[in-house]
Structure formats: C-alpha cells, structure tokens
Amino acid sequence: MSDSSSDTQEQYWNLVEEFIELANKRTEECDLGAVSQALMYAAARYSAFYLASASESRKDLKEDKDDAIDRFSREFKRLFADSTEDYIENYKVYMRTEEE
Predict the structure, then answer these.
(1) How far apart are CA 91 and CA 29, in angstroms?
(2) How many domains does the chain divide into?
(3) Which residues lie below 8 Å from residue 91, measured CB to CB, with a gap of 6+?
(4) What is the pLDDT of residue 1?
(5) Of 1, 27, 59, 70, which is least surrounded by CB within 10 A?
(6) 0.90 cut: is pTM over it?
(7) Does residue 34 sit within a domain?
(8) Residues near 92 by Cβ (< 8 Å), separated by ≥ 6?
(9) Is the dihedral of CA 42, 48, 51, 54 positive or negative?
(10) Is 96 part of any domain?
(11) 91 within 8 A of 97, measured Cβ to Cβ
(12) Is 94 in contact with 87 (CB distance < 8 Å)?
C-alpha cells in the first residue's frame, strides 16, 4: 500500500516542476518579466477560485477573504524569500556565471 502523504508530496513537486518547465519554455518567446507576472496572476486567480470553492456561500467567502489574503501573502513571502536565498547561495550554479 502506498503512503498517501508521500504520494501527495510527489504530486506536489511534480506540479511545481511542470509549472516551472512551462514558464521556462514560454521565456523562449516572451519577456521574462511578462512570464513572471502572468504566472503570479494565474496563481492569484487560481487561489481565489480555490478559496471560493472551499466556501459554503458568498457570505462565507466575503468573511474569509481578508484572513485568506493574509495567509496566502505570508506564504508567498516565505516561499519567495527562501527561493531568493537559494539563488543567492547557488548563484554561480543557477546563473552559470563566475560572479560572486
């Protein structure tokens, strides 16, 4: 029998890699900044859909909105800070440069 937590983790990381792969592919024909903005907007739209789907009613959605925005914002800030720190630590590898 498979470990559902392990399966969920694997599925999560597969999705992350798929989204990054698509974003990287799109930078071949689109500006890097445009791809980043589009990805951020898509994440915001989908997160709003996720919140609405989890709400029992429009009233509940309206009541939960501010807390959800705070939660999602904190999580994005944490993930962005961690990822930026990773790029700082691995700049030469990720950016393929000798610069320190």
Answers:
(1) 24
(2) 1
(3) 97, 99, 100
(4) 46
(5) 1
(6) no
(7) no
(8) 98, 99, 100
(9) negative
(10) yes
(11) yes
(12) yes
pLDDT confidence of residue 2: 52
Per run of 10 residues, the mean pLDDT along the chain (length 100 residues) is: 80 98 98 98 98 98 98 98 97 84
Whether residue 57 is contained in a domain is answered as yes
- Report yes or no on 69 lying in a domain: yes
The amino acid at 1: M
- Please report, as a single letter, which amino acid is at residue 28: E
Query: Which residues have a Cβ under 8 Å from the Cβ of 39 and sit 6 or more positions away?
Result: 19, 23
Containing structural domain, residue 74: 47-100
Question: Which residue bears the tokens 């925005």?
Answer: 69
Spell out the residues 6+ positions from residue 27 whose beta carbon is closer than 8 angstroms to its own: 35
Q: Which residue has the tokens 């599925």?
A: 11
